[in-house]
Write a structure and sequence with these properties.
By secondary structure, the chain is of the alpha+beta class. The two termini are 25 Å apart. It contains 16 helices and 13 strands. It has a single domain, classed as Cytochrome P450 (Cytochrome p450, Orthogonal Bundle). Helix 5 runs antiparallel to helix 6, helix 5 packs parallel to helix 16 and helix 12 crosses helix 14. 38% of the residues are buried.
């Protein structure tokens, strides 16, 4: 089964965008226009025009002036920006998932984020990567058994399956059993519902009216559960408390010579932020990666041959599945964030361009990952590129989770989760999407599928691989 691609291997453009592209232009211009197809769709939100040059893409949305830079020098300077110059968190504050009733975000996002990174690193160190993968896979097995409950059938919305699986798997792995068991039943449905409000218009123009579901009872129930759990934990002697992520938040920390003590509201907001990131990104890539695999039968056949060497899928074996892990990395390369934005706090010169305060400075992982000079045939799904001897992409050229001091510290864990989830599904079932392959929609900054995609499944025969 082949994806919707033209003979050159380039992805299909939106008709409005395709009509504006003519032959003879440098290769990077169609790439850039395709990446920012969002400009042509919610165009009524934009004022002014766009100016293109080889290094920077500029446009206006409402009162914000955006500068999106490309190139290695821009990436290097971007990852060295200091919190005194830019706000790395302003876009995060606009995400509807992070708005909880009666909960205010931390007033000092820089210090609280640094504390969160230290807390997560402590969990990684104490639990170990393999253990965190095993916990995720246990929840994935439960979700698979619940969803694929017949020898063969159809799943009406495969992304919904990926999302729900990653919500529960990441929650239990990162939060620990005590927090996971205390979460209300409604929290999964709330995370799923609020996903529909994550659109480019809501992120770039946060005051624009939203017609998606309101947070509702799920958010309130989550806040109440976490608030009660924190109160109980504060009364518990530290030696009797479980060594989980929450306990690390309650443990005294000193950052840059200052004691970091978070209020209950700050802990609730930060835990929710961590959990959202931990399930959203894996779910998006679980979906698109499976589309990539099923659209390339030769790669899928090679993956199944590799799987025949393993008796089980667990935290140890997923690290040895080199081809399937290469498929994960290739999916991360093909379907990254469109932009990593920072809000400029004061006058700043970046790569020779003077940026005014309140403008938005960004780089684009999408444009970087589709640069022909870095990744030959960038629009093709070629996981073998990650198995070539000596292939270690520069941290300036492979940036699915950003980089520098604010880069994702859970990227290795995410790739292991994805490798394990795909292995579980492919070993048990023959999968196929219904109809044509879905088209990547770049009107959302984080690129979930635009529409529901149905999948058919059939239990593999007795000589299959099993789990």
């Amino acid at each position: 089964m082949k994806s919707q691609q033209d003979p050159s291997g380039d992805p299909p453009f939106h008709p409005k965008t395709a009509a504006s592209i003519r032959g003879g232009l440098p290769r990077w211009i169609p790439d850039l226009v395709s990446a920012f197809d969002m400009v042509s769709r919610p165009g009524h939100l934009f004022t002014g025009g766009a100016a293109l040059d080889p290094l920077v893409f500029r446009f206006r949305v409402a009162w914000e002036h955006w500068f999106i830079f490309r190139g290695e020098a821009a990436h290097e300077q971007f990852f060295q920006l200091r919190p005194d110059d830019v706000d790395p968190f302003f876009f995060r504050m606009r995400m509807p998932t992070l708005r909880l009733p009666g909960v205010s975000p931390p007033p000092d996002m820089t210090r609280s984020t640094m504390g969160t990174r230290l807390n997560l690193m402590a969990v990684f160190r104490e639990q170990g990567l393999q253990s965190l993968v095993d916990v995720f896979l246990d929840e994935a097995r439960v979700a698979t058994a619940r969803t694929f409950h017949q020898p063969e059938g159809q799943i009406p919305d495969f992304f919904d399956f990926c999302l729900r699986t990653c919500i529960r798997g990441s929650s239990r792995a990162l939060l620990g059993d005590a927090l996971f068991e205390a979460l209300p039943d409604e929290y999964t449905d709330w995370y799923v519902d609020i996903e529909g409000d994550l659109t480019i218009s809501r992120l770039m123009v946060p005051w624009w009216p939203s017609f998606a579901r309101t947070p509702g009872n799920g958010a309130a129930a989550l806040v109440d559960a976490l608030r009660g759990l924190i109160e109980d934990r504060r009364r518990l002697p530290p030696e009797r408390a479980p060594r989980d992520l929450l306990q690390h938040y309650l443990t005294r920390r000193v950052i840059d010579g200052q004691e970091l003590l978070l209020t209950d509201d700050e802990i609730i907001w930060t835990l929710n932020s961590v959990e959202w990131a931990a399930h959203h990104y894996p779910a998006v890539h679980a979906f698109w990666g499976m589309i990539d695999l099923l659209s390339n039968p030769d790669v899928l056949h090679a993956v199944m041959q590799e799987q025949s060497r393993f008796d089980d899928v667990n935290g140890e074996t997923v690290g040895e599945m080199s081809l399937l892990n290469g498929c994960v990395l290739e999916s991360l390369r093909r379907h990254p964030l469109v932009a990593l934005p920072r809000l400029v706090k004061r006058e700043l010169t970046f790569c020779g361009v003077d940026l005014p305060p309140r403008s938005v400075l960004a780089i684009s992982p999408y444009l970087c990952h589709h640069d022909e000079s870095l990744y030959p045939s960038p629009h093709r799904f070629r996981p073998a590129r990650w198995k070539a001897p000596g292939v270690h992409p520069s941290p300036l050229h492979f940036i699915p989770g950003g980089g520098g001091q604010w880069g994702c510290i859970g990227m290795r864990l995410t790739t292991s989760w994805l490798t394990g989830l795909w292995a579980l599904l492919l070993r048990q079932y023959e999968l196929a999407f219904v109809g044509e392959a879905p088209r990547l929609d770049l009107t959302a900054m984080l690129m979930p599928p635009a529409d529901k995609t149905a999948f058919t499944y059939r239990l593999r025969s007795g000589d299959g691989l099993g789990t």
